[in-house]
Amino acid sequence: MQTTYLATYLAIKELIRNRGRFLLVALVIALITLLVLFIAALGEGLGNGNRQYVANLDAQLIVFLEKSDYIISSSRLETNTARSVRRVDGVADAGAIYTSSSEIVSLDEPLKVSLLGVEPGRPGMPTILEGREFRIGEARETVIDRNVALRTNLKVGDIIEIRSTQGTEDEFFELKVVGLVDGQSYFFQPTIFVPPATWEKIRPQSEAELTSDTPFPNIVAVKLRDPMQIEEMSVRLIERIPNIEVADIQTTINNIPGYSAQQGTVQTQAVFTLLIGVLVIGGFFQIQILQKVPQIGVLKAIGSANGMVGLSAVIQIIIVTAMGVGIGGGLTWLFSLGFPPTIPLVFNGINSLVAVILLLLIGPIGGLVSIIYAVRIEPLKALRLG
Amino acid sequence: MSDIALEVRDLVKSFSLDGAAINAVDQVSFQVKFGEFVALVGPSGSGKTTMLSILAALLTPTSGQVLIDGQDLSKMSEKERVKLRREKIGFTFQANNLIPFLSARENVEFMLRLNGKLDHGSRIRSDELLARLGLGERLHNLPAQMSGGQQQRVAIARALIHNPALVLADEPTASLDTERAFQVVETFANLIHENGRAGIIVTHDLRMCQFVDRVLQMQDGKLVRVYETKKEIMELAVAAVH
Q1: Which has the closest alpha carbon to B132: B120, B121, B144, B124?
Q2: Do B95 and A294 touch (CB under 8 A)?
């Protein structure tokens, strides 16, 4: 108790009296925090841009065309696959999903979007936040995701015009916005949803495809009666329906082209930033301890225990690190307010918390060598004999 | 209670140099009573600082005994030696004496904090001691804001505030001009006498001996001569002036 009190007393006195020096270190930690939190947010944002729609599906399994290697764009199922899946025992519901991309041109700045054909009321159709689902058939209606609304100020009731290259001609189609859903980015683009028949009409297609009115889904989202039976239902679906392969949601996400490489890159950056932080903080505290060798020698000579000297260094490191992380967190929040929605920054609570905990640990880890060094300083240093 | 604050018996400290054993302290014995101020003098390499380090419980002797206020250092664990340094010994060093981020008052009070003796009464005593040393206006100054002499006086206050049995001073005047050096040692001697503590000052400046009660002269690790009478001591100090 006495040791802790004295260690805290010394640590705080030194922090206050040398506040300029320690504030500089805290600011370095704040910059590292800013960098780490932004990298984490960027990783989350980029990941979301890629996986958001798939991750939010109200389904446990995804049906692909056999040998498509779980890549959505490589899969092109038979038109009646969703109906076949729905007949399999254990399936609660299934919805076909058709993917393509397009461009909204009726805006000051044209916006590239993912154009997804989904069946209203079935897996694949996100929950409506405002307005209603579109009608089935060839209704020229669309539901937009929040990312589209944020970037364009479009709202329910507006009419949008999209451009689609069909054959060698550019065609323009008008769609009425009838509903708004939460963020559903897919393949780095905000998303608009249309009925399958409308999707087949308005999607970009080659000359050869123009002759067909039959839409072929890329994948089918499968909702199970028992969400725990993923393994069994995968096997059952493959047995009952020819020419398909089945994956769970996470496998589907990991096989989105570029997703794993992108996340690996971002995580590596974050790890290296943390490592640099450990080295910078470790270097600072080591230099500081080297400058304080005679002082620590005197402290020990007059009867301060090793534990007290070490604990004082630990307390100091923790306080400076916490200050730096606090300032860095505040700066991150301030900067995030000024970033436009086109920059994919998403501050996920759990990821940010993990980053903050790691950042709080880099101080003591970085300062470990200096703490050990401080504890080992001989009190004889005070008498010029050390 | 014995009037002996420090007793050194047949003390030897050997170091190995290029394979050969060198006795930095060689069969030294002496006593210091409470209220007595003793100077340890000798040329460089005579063993003064090694002796002081052993007396300060910072260095373990090769053989022999050191008893401080009746407690035998050779029988103590490291933890007990730390406790002894905290409670029974006061220190002033040649340089880097004070904790740089604590004010004069806080440096002195730190010794009381270490011993769990800081209260209203001891705070007043600490301020009075600093005032007595001419630092009444400097209580809140940091070491960097004080002269070398003022810093040494703060160190003296810190060495005495917790009423240790033994006060050790390692070349306290080395970085001071002559006038300040005399002031510091004279004040130190007065406080040792007034408080009835035992004091040992290691110095190469024999002029400072005029303020002590006894001079122990070391050479090649041995105690070669003891100056005990005031006449002998003054002759030594005067000879140093010339």
Answers
A1: B124
A2: yes
Q: How far apart are CA A8 and CA A148, in angstroms?
A: 53
What would the two tokens of residue B139 be?
């209580």
Task: Out of 3.20.20.60, 2.60.40.10, 1.20.200.10, 3.40.50.300, select the CATH number for domain B4-94+166-241.
Answer: 3.40.50.300
CA atoms within 13 A on the CB side of A182: 9
CA angle B200, B97, B102 (to 5 degrees): 135
Tokens standing for A253?
Answer: 């996400």
**Chain A residue with the nearest C-alpha to that of B95:** A382
- Listing DSSP states for A284-347 in one string gives HHHHHHHHTHHHHHHHHHTT--HHHHHHHHHHHHHHHHHHHHHHHHHHHHHHHHTS-TTS----
Residue of chain B nearest A300, judged by CA positions: B82
Whether the CB of B114 is below 8 Å from some CB of chain A: the reply is yes
- Asked if A385 lies within 8 A of B50 by C-beta distance, the reply is yes
**What are the boundaries of each domain within chain B?**
4-94+166-241
DSSP reduced 3-state for A263: helix
B111 in contact with A, Cβ within 8 Å:
yes
Residue of B nearest to A294 (CA): B96
Residue pLDDT tens, chain B, 242 long: 678 999 999 999 998 888 888 899 999 999 999 999 999 999 988 999 899 999 999 899 999 999 999 999 988 998 999 999 999 999 888 876 799 999 999 999 999 999 999 999 999 999 999 998 889 999 999 999 998 889 988 999 999 999 999 999 988 887 778 888 888 899 889 989 998 999 999 988 889 999 999 999 999 999 999 998 888 888 888 887 76
Residue with token string 């006894």: B214
ipTM summary value: 0.87
**CA B152 from centre of chain:** 12
Nearest CA to A315 out of A12, A19, A25, A22 is that of A12
CB A370 within 8 A of CB A313: yes
- Supply the pTM of this predicted model: 0.77
Asked if B93 and A14 come within 8 Å (Cβ–Cβ), the reply is no
Q: Using the beta-carbon criterion (under 8 Å), do A14 and B101 form an inter-chain contact?
A: yes
For B56-177, where are the alpha helices, taking DSSP H only? 78-88, 104-114, 120-132, 148-160
Q: Which helix (H) or strand (E) holds A25?
A: helix A19-55
B93 closest CB neighbour out of A298, A303, A304:
A298
> Where does residue B195 rank: exposed (0-12), middle (13-18), buried (19+ CB within 10 A)?
middle
Q: Which tokens in the block code for residue B100?
A: 């740089």
For residue A17, list chain B residues with Cβ-Cβ distance below 8 A: 101-102, 142
